[in-house]
Write a structure and sequence with these properties.
It catalyses: gamma-L-glutamyl-L-cysteine + glycine + ATP = glutathione + ADP + phosphate + H(+). This is Glutathione synthetase. It contains 22 helices and 24 strands. With 699 residues, it is of the alpha/beta class. The strands form 6 sheets. Strands 8, 10, 11, 20, 21, 22 and 23 form a 7-stranded antiparallel β-sheet that branches. Strands 12, 13, 14, 15, 16 and 17 form a 6-stranded mixed β-sheet that branches. Strands 4-5-6-7 form a 4-stranded parallel β-sheet, sandwiched between helices. The longest helix has 26 residues. The relative contact order is 0.11.
């Protein structure tokens, strides 16, 4: 790697960075390596450690300057392994930035082990070697140690970080006098990657809730923390020790405790705000809308049949499982289901098909642009937000009437009522009036009021018999039990239906959460949907269905399927590198906000050039040229925004079927959504803050 003298501050130095598989730790590992250091990267997840390594190799960091160590840092054997393997490979230790991995934990002992004890153990093991090299220690603390920001949500976390700061000052005194080893800590504020990952990838709510806690009114980036880390660890900071340096965007300077709705809105009575919405419905061609509606039942039947074909899924993911731990774990669960036999053949597919308009030319007679409708995504996993879609349509119909326009051009939208009836139908099919309907959701969930509406309607439909329970995957690990007859029990009560609002493809479940998924799949509960169907709509499956013969496997009748021609992978990749603005690279489990565009797309493709397994975990798609209109965006606490916009149509439907004989008892389309974003924006998710709810005005 071509590096000038200024960039070589850590030439010949050996740096151990715990928790370097993501966030600040990953950014630090990359930057220290770019500055010439030999870097030891560590984490719990082998796949994410490999991702960090690949990013370093893509920047031409020599492989012999990288050491990977995997294991839970709270276990002493991991600390010993870190020190021993570092000495075996590099013969010395110069810098020890101790970075805990972000975890949503409430157990005091666990927090102590991760945030305090593990650092003390690792420091003690490494200290003799740091004394030899006159190295230094950098602890990764938090601004939570300086203020009350964690008092309600994670009180133990703030206490342990304060203890770590005090440990830093004490060790600086002891080590400075004894050996000249410097000891400092870095105290980051709200950092985007960490907070967004902890909250299921929902960027918008996280930025609004936590960005406002900083003077700079935004979240920080891992790359903005690393320069301060490098200063404290390099010779440029040779006269700095015992310092706890805040890199928090001014969080501490605010000088007050956060209010409840800023710190932990779900515990506050003043939590509700209106969902982001467009002022008026956006124009959408009637013919394209009706075509998308008409094909929805066939789409549902297709993905139901895909989910029933376990052998097809195993073959489809045979390369993906080599690099994607999440997919591998889910495929392993399906293999176990296949081995034991499907305990509950009935499943409820809840589907949304997403479409965009694509310009194909102009009308020769009037010069107007002509558009075709293109499917861009199929979703068979976590489908929520239907209540907001109906209310948006009703709002726009009222506004159209007030301004003298025909409200019937904004079609009726009753997807939420259809969903509720489908869930009730599944509960009745279980044929046990005492059985629970479990809604599987994140602890922090944006649509909680919508869920209460679902619960109330189910209570009404069942005459008060149907009881709903809300469970997270984490709680499910402790509260679910499999009975001898394969019944799923929640605290001793039989579960009849599990309605999942946690994306199988988008949410990174830990080992315990994956075990909860396994219990659900091996049970007699009716899944809405089953795991097989939930992973049947990934980008990889969509790619295979688009290839010659892909659809025909599931629709043998040639009139039901359309033959499509595929292009050679290498030619497409070469064109994407040459013309990145024409493409988007999507990971297999993309759920919004994780795509690669433009220069980042080129960098990622080059990183994967010699890694066929990682390439198999991504899908390269050609960008469309959508219809551009104008509209106003209305968001809570923000002035209305006017601009050029593009819209994405989603069409809802449900299917009830038997996974053993593949018969279908119910298949219907009902409901739609329109998500609209600014024309210049790449991502377009409502929950991530880059789009608004909209409805189509048909013309």
């Amino acid at each position: 790697m071509a590096e000038n003298q200024k960039q070589q501050r850590f030439q010949g130095k050996v740096v151990i960075i715990t928790g370097s598989s993501a966030g600040i730790g990953q950014a630090a590992a990359i930057e220290f390596a770019k500055d010439g250091a030999a870097v030891v990267i560590h984490g719990r997840d082998g796949q994410r450690i490999n991702e960090t390594e690949q990013k370093m190799l893509a920047l031409e960091v020599p492989a012999d300057r990288i050491l990977k160590v995997q294991g839970p840092i709270e276990e002493e054997k991991t600390a010993q392994k870190l020190v021993e393997e570092t000495l075996n490979k590099f013969g010395r230790i110069d810098v020890l930035p101790g970075n805990d991995e972000p975890m949503d934990i409430v157990n005091l002992d666990h927090i102590y082990n991760v945030n305090m004890r593990s650092i003390v153990v690792l420091t003690n093991l490494a200290m003799p070697h740091l004394e030899k090299s006159r190295g230094n220690v950098l602890n990764i603390s938090s601004c939570a140690s300086h203020r009350y920001m964690s008092a309600r949500v994670r009180p133990y976390y703030g206490v342990m970080k304060a203890a770590l700061d005090h440990w830093t000052r004490i060790m600086a005194l002891i080590c400075g006098e004894k050996s000249g080893v410097r000891v400092n800590s870095i105290n980051p504020g709200p950092i985007a990657d960490t907070l967004i990952n902890e909250r299921g990838g929902q960027r918008g709510p996280v930025e609004q809730q936590y960005g406002n806690s900083a003077v700079l009114k935004r979240l920080g980036l891992p790359s903005e923390v690393v320069p301060a880390m490098k200063l404290l660890c390099s010779d440029d900071g040779s006269f700095i020790t015992g310092v706890c340096l805040l890199v928090d965007g001014g969080v501490k300077s605010v000088g007050r405790e956060l209010s409840p709705d800023e710190e932990n809105a779900e515990e506050c009575n003043h939590f509700a705000q209106f969902a982001p919405v467009s002022l008026l419905p956006s124009p959408f061609p009637r013919e394209a809308f009706e075509k998308a509606i008409a094909v929805q039942q066939a789409m549902q039947l297709l993905y139901f049949r895909v989910g029933c074909d376990f052998d097809f899924l195993f073959e489809a993911y045979k390369d993906v499982v080599k690099t994607d731990k999440q997919i591998k774990q889910m495929v392993d669960i399906l293999r176990e289901v296949q081995k034991q036999g499907i305990k509950q053949p009935q499943t409820l597919l809840i589907m949304r098909s997403d479409y965009m308009l694509n310009k194909v030319g102009s009308n020769k007679e009037n010069g107007n642009d002509q558009y075709e409708i293109k499917q861009i995504e199929a979703n068979t996993g976590a489908i929520g937000g239907l209540g907001n879609d109906r209310r948006t349509s009703e709002l726009h119909q009222r506004l159209l009437k007030r301004i003298g326009m025909d409200p019937t051009n904004a079609p009726q939208n009753e997807g939420d009522a259809h969903l509720i009836n489908s869930l009730f139908m599944a509960w009745k099919a279980f044929d046990n009036s005492d059985a629970l309907l479990v809604i599987l959701s994140h602890v922090k969930f944006s649509y909680k009021y919508e869920l209460r509406k679902i619960e109330d309607e189910l209570d009404r439909l069942s005459g008060g018999q149907l009881r709903v329970a809300y469970v997270s995957l984490k709680d499910g690990y402790y509260d679910f039990k499999l009975a001898a007859d394969s019944s799923l029990l929640l605290n001793g009560k039989v579960v009849g239906v599990v309605y999942s609002l946690i994306s199988a493809l988008g949410y990174k479940a830990n080992e315990e959460e994956m075990e909860a998924r396994k219990m659900i799949e091996l049970s007699t509960a009716i899944k809405a949907p089953s795991l097989a169907i939930a992973i049947s709509s990934s980008k990889k499956i969509q790619q295979l269905l688009a290839s010659p013969g892909g659809v025909e496997r599931f629709f043998p009748d040639p009139t039901e399927a359309e033959q499509r021609q595929d292009e050679k992978t290498e030619q497409i990749i070469a064109d994407a590198i040459e013309n990145p603005s024409n493409y988007v690279l999507k990971p297999n489990g993309e759920c919004g906000g994780n795509n690669y565009y433009d220069d980042k797309l080129v960098e990622k493709l080059r990183t994967m050039a010699n890694n066929q397994e990682e390439r198999a975990a991504h899908i390269l798609m050609q960008k469309l040229h959508p219809m551009i209109t104008k509209n106003y965006f209305l968001r809570s606490s923000i002035l209305p925004q006017f601009g050029f916009v593009v819209s994405e149509l989603g069409v809802y439907g449900t299917l009830m079927g038997n996974m053993l004989d593949r018969t279908v008892s119910y298949n219907a389309q009902s409901g739609h959504l329109l998500r609209t974003k600014l024309a210049g924006a790449n991502e377009g998710g409502i929950s991530v803050g880059t789009a608004v709810g909209d409805s189509p005005y048909l013309f």
